[in-house]
């Protein structure tokens, strides 16, 4: 793949889990990266990225920007040919879904793309969306063509009161396509990952998935895990897909990134093969009737509607477009989980049983 290094590229949310690997790949390719972050003066947040640049042929510059600060991405975007928009909150438990999820996702996307409209150098935007913009509950898979999710499917089951995170991703991606369709100078390519797993570019990487894996390792789920159908994909494959989407001229549309169709019980079992002697990992499924009774009292996100529409429902997605159009190849789920869990052990996320 021919990567043009003559102009800089911008990454929003550059300190994030996925963005860290995108930045690394860009630096390794010799690009100048404009890293848009909320606090560029925080060494704790940006030092790992500066260290990456010191060991790579590329270079990095940090810019202050915020999703809800209109026009704040303009300086970072100036002169850039590609914009990678990764910044968006990934939190399940929130006090106010509109304020904490939907507004940052939707208004933030509009803020970034409005700046793209005002920056003549930008030719392509690569947007980090999610499979959550394609489906809301695992039960939705049964209604997809052939029972398999594709890029043609949109999430119609989520709302502010049910699966608000998924709702925020669907609304943000819709907003992006609307803004892109209203102009003709730059094009939009979208990456739709399933649940992202794998090690972070720093030992204290944060994402909702780390909270889930931590609960598996610290004994919270030792009695069993809910058999919730999901897909998983390694963070490094997601990052590479972004790079390929940016520099493959014919890339277009949405791309499902999914390495394995699985569920949380299978994830616990995969981890237990390597770490089961030392950590109380879940290897059995919690019965759905038990979850129905106790779920809402244990975790407010485990509503009875969520349990009904996700537990014991298989999840299936077609990753053919990502393999054929972007050249993505997928590593085994166990390899990603093992590296992730080992990194968390070394970071002190949990103690041996």
General description of the model:
This protein is α/β, with parallel strands linked by helices. The chain has one domain: NAD(P)-binding Rossmann-like Domain (Rossmann fold, 3-Layer(aba) Sandwich), CATH 3.40.50. It contains 12 helices and 10 strands. It has helices at residues 17-28, 43-54, 74-77, 97-117, 164-181, 208-217, 235-247, 264-275, 288-298, 304-310, 320-325, 333-346; strands at residues 9-12, 32-37, 59-64, 82-85, 124-128, 187-193, 195-197, 229-234, 253-257, 260-263. A 7-stranded parallel β-sheet has the order 3-2-1-4-5-6-9, with helices on both faces. It has a 3-stranded mixed β-sheet with strand order 7-8-10. Strand 5 (124-128), helix 5 (164-181) and strand 6 form a beta-alpha-beta unit. Helix 4 runs parallel beside helix 5. Keywords: Oxidoreductase. Residues 9-251 form the NAD-dependent epimerase/dehydratase domain. It comes from Hoeflea poritis. This is NAD-dependent epimerase/dehydratase family protein. Belongs to the NAD(P)-dependent epimerase/dehydratase family. Dihydroflavonol-4-reductase subfamily.
């Amino acid at each position: 793949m021919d990567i043009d290094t003559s102009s800089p590229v911008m990454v929003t949310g550059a300190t994030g889990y996925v963005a860290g690997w995108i930045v690394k790949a860009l630096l390794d390719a010799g690009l100048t990266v404009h890293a848009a972050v909320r606090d560029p003066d925080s060494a704790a947040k940006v030092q790992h990225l500066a260290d990456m640049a010191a060991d790579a042929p590329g270079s990095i510059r940090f810019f202050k920007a915020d999703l809800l600060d209109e026009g704040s991405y303009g300086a970072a975007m100036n002169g850039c040919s590609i914009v990678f928009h990764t910044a968006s909150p990934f939190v399940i438990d929130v006090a106010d879904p509109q304020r904490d999820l939907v507004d940052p996702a939707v208004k933030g996307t509009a803020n970034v793309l409005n700046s793209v409209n005002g920056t003549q150098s930008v030719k392509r935007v690569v947007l980090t969306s999610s499979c959550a913009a394609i489906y809301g509950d695992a039960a939705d898979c049964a209604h997809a063509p052939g029972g398999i999710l594709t890029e043609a499917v949109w999430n119609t089951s989520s709302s502010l009161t049910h699966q608000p995170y998924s709702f925020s991703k669907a609304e943000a991606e819709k907003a992006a396509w609307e803004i892109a369709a209203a102009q003709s100078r730059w094009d939009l390519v979208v990456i739709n990952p399933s649940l992202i797993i794998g090690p972070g570019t720093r030992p204290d990487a944060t994402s909702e998935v780390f909270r889930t894996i931590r609960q598996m390792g610290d004994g919270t789920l030792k009695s069993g895990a809910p058999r919730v159908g999901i897909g998983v994909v390694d963070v490094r494959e997601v990052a590479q897909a972004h790079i390929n989407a940016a520099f493959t001229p014919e890339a277009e549309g949405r791309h499902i990134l999914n390495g394995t169709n699985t569920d949380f019980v299978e994830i616990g079992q995969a981890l237990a093969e390597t770490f089961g002697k030392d950590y109380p990992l879940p290897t059995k499924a919690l019965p759905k009737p038990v979850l129905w009774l106790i779920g809402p009292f244990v975790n407010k996100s485990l509503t009875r509607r969520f349990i009904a529409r996700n537990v014991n429902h298989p999840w299936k997605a077609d990753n053919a477009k990502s393999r054929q159009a972007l050249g993505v190849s997928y590593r085994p789920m166990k390899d990603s989980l093992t590296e992730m869990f080992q990194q968390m052990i070394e970071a002190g996320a949990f103690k041996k049983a």
